[in-house]
Amino acid sequence: MVTRRRAVAECLLSAAALVVQTYSRNALHRHEEYDDPPPLSAGGVFAGTLYQLAYLWAYDRDWGRMRSNSYRRLAYGLCVTTVKRRLFPSDEFRFGFGTGGLVGSILYRFWYGVLRPVPGSA
Predict the structure, then answer these.
(1) For the DUF8097 domain, which residue ranges apply (predicted)?
(2) What is the CA radius of gyration of the chain?
């Protein structure tokens, strides 16, 4: 079961990670000695947001015993990573996907955890 305290902590950590990611991208962009980081793909951000929303929804409801069985959670993560790397090999999409995952995590945990109770916790 995901507690409300953990959901709020995940929301805050995701927000902090998004701020750090944005700051570091801007800092790298300002330095001339480094190559520019790849631009973010809007499709990647959208896909990452949808993926993270679906993953957290399934995790909170223990769909497919994902939350209660760590081996299934690991196998699910490996399958998703493999499919993502095969279908979307470009760096722009992958960086956008990661950023979208943070956005999706912030949105979901803000809705379920801060504003409303976490599904399955009550």
Answers:
(1) 1-121
(2) 16
